[in-house]
Each structure stands twice: as structure tokens, then as C-alpha cells.
Amino acid sequence: MSILDIDERILQVVELVDLRATPITDLKEPDIEGVDVGILEGGINNTYNEEVAKKMRERCKILVALGDCAVFGGVPAMRNFVGVDAALKRAYIEAESNDQEGKIPSSPELAVMTRVRAIHEVVPVDLFIPGCPPDADVIFYALVELAQGRMPDIKDDKLHWH
Amino acid sequence: MIKLTIDEKTIEVQEGTTVLEAAEAAGVYVPTLCHHPQLTPYGGCRMCMVDVEGARTLQPSCTLPATDGMVVRTSSEKVIKARKFVLTLIFSERNHFCMYCPVSDGDCELQNRAYDEDMTHWDLQPNWQPYEVDASHPFIVLDNNRCILCRRCVRACGELVGNYTLGFEERGADSLLVADYNVPLGESTCISCGTCVQICPTGALIDRQSAYQGKETEVDHHVGVCVECSVGCRRDVLTRDNRLVRIEGEWDADLNHGLLCDQGRFLPLEDDRTRLLTPLVRKNGSLKAATWEEALKAISDNMGQGAGLAALASTRLPAEDLALFKSIFTDGLNAGLVTSLEAGKATASLALLAEKLGKPFETSLDALKDTDAVLSLELDLVDEHQVAGFFVKRQLLDGTKLIVADSSQNKLAENAACNLPLKPGEEAQFLSQLLKAVAESSEDATLRDVAEILKHAEKPCIVYGETFASQADEAALVALLELAVTLNASLVGVKGQANSMAAAQLGLEDPIKTDGVKSAFILLGDQEPSQKLVKALEDVPFVVTQAAYSSQMTANADVVLPVTMWAEQAGTYLSMDGRLQKSVKSLDAPEGVLTSHEALLKIAETLALEPDTNWEASLKARTPTVAFQSA
């Protein structure tokens, strides 16, 4: 969502690209024939994230990890210190906001939580844009470069992990 | 001299110079992490590796001695690749989650090194083994998750402070930074000097007061002298939006080289006393808020002058203020008593001796840094004037012998080679016995041992404090001088508060007596008044107090003038060893609050006095106990 931080400049980006799929467009997944650039935000937290990452890798020539969660694991990765079971128990049973009958969701339709990983631990990543969130200017720079077929160089004042 | 080439630049250096030092001299930047200019090179992090022609592997430049004809490359492809790999290993060794770390994005040396190498990520995942965070200490938080095992803190604690609290448990990847034998830091032998926090390159040691309060890019720096005691350490006061953020020691300072004690670093930020924001005047028995004009009129109507007037000033105030104070009350109002709140206890007898000799007889505190035998006379260097104590403590493992002569329990005693009992009032007798033991011999076995140590020392040093200075009679001081001459020893006199020496130079050293005093003027500044002082002034009919904070003293006063605290004023301080240094203004004072100097000038104006404002001449008019050094 930090891509929206570039504000009205998004219109300039849209002019340069053919936006194929996003979580908020009708098409949620990149075309099966493949696309030039795919951007992933967030770390790999469950089996669904794994599937998405693998599909993105297969279909995108350049895969970008955007933000500290995608690059390092980020805040959700704090749960790795306690493990999945303890994190679920805390959230669904012990948390003060739960009712007396709190229980851990266990529908077979739900993805299974895993250890939180940076994307590049699951699939190879071509470009890392760290930051929590990355600065809007850095995002804009990266998108414009990618849209024009160049690989952005994230360094100096464009490099912040936060 | 040795000639070597670094990145195509040829440079000549002294034998014993490391490649890193040579590179710095040649203007070639080599990144480092575990290295610190104040510490012995350690070679622990491998960040500073360089390519040396003919060497089998890359070499750590911080520990590698430069040799003649050496050809060094600091940024070959091999070196850059190794640096990134070293950083990757360091990041993955523990749990470095920069997004929740207070030093992230600017203040972290580890992250900055990674930025320098254009690292957008690291290839190896973190350790994921959680380490407990030790938050037991009132000022310091120790987080092993962010530790890079560089041991800067451990080395600083030992090499610089001589406290040896921090150390490492286990080896390799299991290494854990611990206090003492792995006790919580808050229950350890830590003395809260904070040097470890200041020297930590990452967020493994942070201080509670300033964490998340402002990064380097957001704070203002104010470098000046510390006003918590007369050692005269230089420190950097960091502020943001007119608020104190943190105090750090100045690494470049000639005397303290970055060191501070808890009193200079942490305690000033803990001050929670109530500020005085308006003048107060007693009307019908109770203190009421008043204007400056009303307060000054009350002073001009009631304070009077001559023998019935007593004027006392805090030695925490700048020399400018003390000189102006003296001129107003001695020259202008001819007050019966004009003195400091310390009443010259640490200085009067010594100042007399210097006048008699016609020259200074004490030496710089630097003598304490390089000595092989220290005789400490009635002096606590553990709780007071701590940084001077660090200079002594840190040499003890290198063979410097400490001899403690004291009447009361002295915390340095456990580190001493010899302990000698010394009763207050018997200084002369003690020193002449010691002198005899040095010159001839003694029947007392301990005295004989002490004499042997002192006689065989190349750079002996005798250090004494307020108790000694206030107890020693003329005979004792003569014996002290004779002992120093016989041993060729340096004499270091530890004075009281920040401007104890300036007060001595101005002759503000008469004992405080309030019998028959009709009115008193107390220039308190930000000093907390002692119970004894409050009691002594209880029966004085008219008391004016000029103070920054509310206290029993101001509650009992008839007129209270609100003035600035240390951070809101600038001025000059004369350290115990004669260094004239400036304190700087770090904060803006609240509205309606004047500096002590401004308030004194207003009083002089109201009383139609024309005080002498040439403080420097007044300060230098008297023969000092130690030669002035301009810093």
C-alpha cells in the first residue's frame, strides 16, 4: 500500500506501464504468459504467501521485494521468537479482547501459518527496496526506472532500512 | 621511519604504526567496527580487512603493523566482497531488526557500514534464537540480540574506566555480554558511568533516557565543560526542541577523552525539582508571586549593608558570576561575610601555602593518568570526582601501586597495595613519619613497605582532597611539600565543586558564621541547599535567595529571585588543576527567569552600585595552587 504514498505521481507511472494485476483490481494474479515486473510487499508468513511468492516468481521476469517485511521479515517476524503455536494461543485465546471461548481458527480452507521469512528465503529476488515504509521518492524512482526497462540502483540517500 | 604504499599513495610513518593508522594519515578511509581510537586495537570484527601484496589472506588493518615497502589496497574487489560478507555474517549472527531499534537510520555504525557498501538486504537469515533483554539497570538497557561481539564496551569498562564490570561468557556464537558473573546489570558492580553506551556501535547498549528521543540528525550539540565537580570533563549536551536528550563525553577532550561519570552523564537528566518561574516576596508572613521590580525594591529596602550582611554563593556558578558577586558584596556593600557555600574547605589552606611560596605547587590531573605509585590522602575518588578515580583504577592492573591513607572507609581501599590509618588532625604527624620512613627507615613494617614503593616509583603521585585540605595545619602542609620534593612526586589537589578553584582565587573562603547577621544574600543557582545551611540561616531576619529550584531554603526566604539552571547559562569554570574552560548554554530559560549574572547586575543597578566586571583579572590576582592552563 505504500505505493500510494507517491500520490498523484502514480498517474505518471500508470502512463508508462500496463498494470496487469493487483490485490485491488479484478485480476489478482499476473498473466500466465508472464509479465515484466512483479512487486511483493510483506514477508512469507503462511502457506498462501508461499504459493503467491512462487507464482509471482514463475510469472515475473523481475521480482521486487518492497519494504522491510519483504526484505527482512519485519515486525511480523517477531513471532519467530516464540513460535507459531504460542503466537496463535496468545492472539486467539489469551488476548484480553477475546471472549471466554476463544479458540484458534482451524478451517481447512485457511492457510497454515509458518515461520516468518524474508521473500528471498523462499524464492530468488532481483531487487530489494528496504524501508519501513520505503520513502515515496524511492518508490517512485524505482517504479519509473523499472517501467523504462532500467534496473534501479538503491543506494546512498535512497537506501534506508528504518 | 617506514615507507609504505596504500592505494597508490606512498606514506612515511613511525615504526609501530598500524596499517589502519597509516591509512588514516594518508587520507584513505578504511571502514571499522570493533576499532575505537581510545581503545587498544582488537581485530575482532574483520571489517577493516585490506589486501596486502604478498600476504596469503586479507589482513585486519587495525592490528597489522605497517612494515617497510608494504603495498596495501583498501578497496580491491576482493576486499569489498569480503566486507559485505563480514557484514552479512554479523547481521545474521544475532537478531538485528533495525525497524525497532532506537539507533536505526543514522546512529548505528553497523547499519551505516552496510549502507556504505550499498547493501539493500543480507543473504543469510538472522539467528532467531532470542536473547533476554536486561533492563534491570536504572539508566542502561543491555540487549544481546543487537550485540556484534566487538567488545568495545568490555574494553572501555576495563581499559578506560578500570571497573571491569562487563565481560563475555561462553565462546564463539554462544558469546554473551554479561555483567560480573552474569548477574543483572542493575545488581552488578556497574557504576553507571555510561561509557559502554556511548561506545557501543549498535543498539546493544542503549540508555533509557534518550532512546527514541532524537537521532543525530534531529538533535543540537552543545560542547562545554561539565559543572558537576571540579575535574572539568568536557561533555556534549544534546538537545531537541529545547529539551535535554542526552549528555555524552567529548572523545576529543584532552583530559577526559570521552569519559564521564553518572553525575555528569545521567543524573542531570533525572532532576525533577520544581522550577521557580517568578520572583517571590514575603508579604504578611507568606511568600507571594511578585514582579522583578517589586522583588528588587524589597531587596533595596531591607537588605542593608556592612557588617550585618552576609553573602554566600554556590561554587557551581560561573567565574563571571562569582567575581561579580564578590565585587557587589565586598566592594559595593562592604558585607561582613562574603564567601562561598563551600567556605574554602577544599582550598583555603592550600591557597595560603601557594601565597607563601609565591608559586603554584600542584600539577595537572594528567599526572594521575601516568603514574606508577599513587598515595591517596583522605580522599574518596570512587563516589566523587570519579573520572579522576578512573585514571587511577585503570592503571592498577598494569602494576601501578595504590596506597590509601584514610580515616574513614575508603572504597579505593580494596584495590590498594597498602592501607594506612590516618586520623583527622594527625596529618602532620603521619606525613613526618612517612617522610622519616622514606628518608631513613621506620619500625612500622607497613610504613617501610609504603616507603619502598614510593621510593622506587619513577612517577609517584600524591593526591589529596577536601578532608585533608580542611584538616591539615601548616606543619602538615610543610611535611607534604617536603615529601613531594624527596620523592620527586607530583601533587594533585582534588577540590570541591565545579568552580571551587575560582572561588579560592577570588578569596571566597571564609567560614560560614551567621551569629549577629541581620540580612543574608544566598546565590544558590541550581545547587540543592544543605540542611546545615538552611538551619544556619533560620534565625537571620531577612534572607534573599537567588535560586533555580524551589527548596526549604527558598521557602524560608523573604525574597526569592528565579534564575537559570546549568544548561541555561554560559560561563567560565576553573578546574581543580587550573584549566579555564567554558560551559555553554544548551537550553533557553523559561520566560521571566534571568541568569544569575543578569540578576546580580539588576541588583547592582537597583542599589546604584558600579561593580567590577573584569572577572579574569580578579581570578588571576592571587597566586594559584596550580598553574593556569588555558584550554
Task: Give a verbal description of the structure.
The complex is a heterodimer of chains A (162) and B (631). By secondary structure, chain A is of the alpha/beta class. Chain A is built from five helices and five strands. Chain A has one domain (2-18, 35-150): NADH:ubiquinone oxidoreductase-like, 20kDa subunit (Rossmann fold, 3-Layer(aba) Sandwich). Helix content of chain A is 30%, strand content 15%. In chain A, the strands form two sheets. A three-stranded parallel β-sheet of chain A has the order 1-3-5, sandwiched between helices. In chain A, helix 1 (9-16) runs parallel beside helix 5 (136-147). Chain B folds into four domains: 2-75, Ubiquitin-like (UB roll) (Roll); 127-270, Alpha-Beta Plaits; 280-343 and 502-629, 3-Layer(aba) Sandwich (Rossmann fold); 348-493, 3-Layer(aba) Sandwich (Dimethylsulfoxide Reductase, domain 2). Chain B is globular and about 85 Å long. In chain B, strand 1 and strand 2 (9-13) form a beta hairpin. Chain B has 631 residues and is α/β, with parallel strands linked by helices. Classes of the chains: A alpha/beta (162), B alpha/beta (631).
What is the 3D form of chain B? globular
**CATH topology-level name of the largest domain in chain B:** Rossmann fold
Largest two-chain interface? A-B, 30 and 17 residues
Helix content of chain B: 25-40%
How many separate domains of chain A?
Answer: 1
When the domains of chain B are counted, the total is 4
Number of strands of chain B: 28
Q: Globular, elongated, flat, extended or rod-shaped: what is the shape of chain A? A: globular
Task: Classify the fold: give the CATH topology of chain A.
Answer: Rossmann fold
- Name the strands of the widest sheet of chain A in spatial order: 1-3-5
Class of secondary structure makeup of chain A: alpha/beta
Whole-angstrom Rg of chain A: 18 Å
Approximate strand percentage of chain A: 15-25%
As residue ranges, the low-confidence spans of chain A are none
Biggest beta sheet attributes of chain A: 3 strands, parallel
